[in-house]
Design a protein that fits this description.
The complex is a heterodimer of chains A (138) and B (315). Chain A contains four helices and five strands. Chain A is of the alpha/beta class. Chain A has a single domain, classed as Rossmann fold. Chain A has a five-stranded parallel sheet with strand order 2-1-3-4-5, sandwiched between helices. The radius of gyration of chain A is 14 Å and the shape is globular. Chain A starts with 5 loop residues before the first strand and ends with a helix. Chain B has one domain. In chain B, α4 packs antiparallel against α5, α8 runs antiparallel to α10 and α8 packs across α11. Chain B is globular. The N and C termini of chain B lie far apart (43 Å). Chains A and B meet through loops of A and α3 and α9 of B.
Chain lengths: 138, 315
């Protein structure tokens, strides 16, 4: 179970810095695929959902709907400081707040943007949590 | 005995292991060609068993029974094809099916993908299945011409006419050497090497399962066990197509020990995978739908027709 975690990435208004760092984790230099990670094109194929960006008002409904489309057992990873605490955008009229208002966050990778090594660390932890969730489900 | 053939060898279990091993070797080699370490060779097996443990969500707009059954139809037809293709000269039900039956059986996995996508009720899947139909049309024409030219080549040697039976092709290769050693069949072999990636759906011809463009195409709403079976179909198709190539073009060797024959057969399948699937996949980008269609109906069909003409002239 923890050997084949597939990732789906949701951008809820991020500046793209974290997204670029996430995609760079799949590139040959950091190569997360040797641990079995794979970026999927649809939320229904994913096990780990990586959310970046402060949840903007426009993306809130889409985020909730997309999170509901991911089959169990799933692990939610919040990428960067924005979903963790809204970073510099806190208090803005269009920002709906940190990610744990909407869904239980399992792993939080802090940083602005986090280093790819920290992202791999967080993703590996998420894979372990997925295995525990699967075991807990039985 | 029939149950053994269907379930163990060369049926379900053998196809399962061989297909997933081929898929794993392909992924590992693509990674190595891109100067990275890549997943372990057993990774597709991990993927398969993981997907079995996920919940299956059926969207409200989908037609439920077709959605769930579609992948199994593809799997059944692929295992049936494996029973008829001579693996290292041995085919479980020899004499029952010939090349024409294989041709029809091979369209069923593509149709099962189209069926699954159509049952998904998603516009992404709709676009994906129309592309899969274009891909199906593109590679069927050269495939038929290649099989015709092989049938005629063997029929020439067996006393005129045209033959479609696998046993006669194997017997021909046993006595005359592999078909690829005839110079007039080399264009057909090259054309077949091009048909293989399109049938499997790997870059540059993976217009159906275009991840970045249409969110995985026909598979967009799938999760859990049906998705596992679709991925398994993809892997087994790799094995079936390379096994078809090996038995049609590179047959005629035999060491006498059956297990060793099967092993050599598998190694040759791996080599064909590397040449026609992995190398192309690692260095190319995806072609457009019209480009795939034009390519197959001009270049690849042209090569196949060249072989057909040469063989019909008796060369």
């Amino acid at each position: 179970m923890s050997k084949s975690p597939w990732i789906y990435h949701i951008n809820t208004g991020s500046c793209n810095g974290c997204d670029i760092e996430l995609v760079s984790v799949i590139t040959p230099r950091y190569d997360a695929e040797r641990l079995g990670f794979k970026l999927t094109g649809t939320p229904r194929h994913a096990d780990i959902v990586v959310v970046s960006g402060p949840i903007t008002a426009q993306s809130k409904d889409r985020l909730v709907r997309t999170l509901a489309q991911i089959p169990d057992p799933k692990v939610v990873v919040s990428l960067g400081s924005c979903p963790r605490s809204c970073n510099v955008f806190k208090g803005s009229y269009s920002v709906e707040g940190p990610l744990d208002k909407f869904v239980h966050v399992d792993v939080s990778v802090a940083g602005c943007p986090p280093k790819p090594e920290a992202i791999i660390d967080g993703l590996a932890l998420a894979a372990q949590i997925m295995k525990q969730k699967k075991r807990g489900q039985k | 005995m029939i149950l053994f053939y269907v379930l163990i060898f060369p049926g379900f279990l053998f196809c399962f292991i061989a297909g997933l091993l081929l898929a794993g070797i392909d992924r590992k080699l693509v990674a190595r060609m891109q100067r990275r370490i890549g997943p372990p060779i057993l990774q597709p097996m991990y993927d398969f068993f993981k997907l079995l443990g996920k919940e299956t969500i059926v969207p409200r707009a989908a037609s439920r029974k077709t959605f769930l059954i579609a992948s199994t139809i593809g799997l059944a037809s692929l295992v049936a094809t494996a029973l008829f293709i001579p693996i290292a000269g041995f085919s479980a039900f020899a004499g029952v099916a010939d090349i024409i039956v294989i041709l029809y059986l091979l369209t069923i996995p593509a149709v099962s993908l189209i069926l699954g996508g159509a049952a998904s009720g998603s516009p992404y899947a709709g676009v994906g299945i129309s592309r899969e139909m274009v891909a199906l049309m593109s590679y069927e024409l050269p495939l038929v011409i290649i099989l015709l030219s092989i049938g005629k080549a063997v029929g020439n040697a067996m006393g005129g006419g045209i033959t479609f039976s696998f046993t006669e092709i194997c017997a021909y290769q046993m006595s005359f050497g592999p078909i690829i050693s005839k110079w007039s069949m080399i264009p057909a072999a090259i054309a077949m090497l091009f048909v293989i990636p399109c049938e499997i759906g790997s870059r540059p011809f993976d217009i159906a399962e275009a991840e970045t463009e249409i969110c995985e195409g026909p598979l967009v709403e799938y999760s859990g066990t049906p998705l596992a079976v679709f991925n398994l179909n993809h892997a087994i198709k790799m094995f079936i197509m390379t096994a078809l190539f090996t038995s049609l073009f590179l047959g005629g060797f035999s060491t006498g020990i059956f297990a060793l024959d099967v092993l050599i057969f598998f190694v040759i399948c791996v080599a064909i995978t590397v040449i026609s699937i992995t190398l192309l996949r690692a260095v190319t980008a995806r072609l457009k739908v019209e480009q795939v269609f034009k390519f197959y109906w001009s270049v690849v069909s042209g090569l196949a027709v060249l072989s057909l003409i040469l063989v019909w002239l008796g060369l």
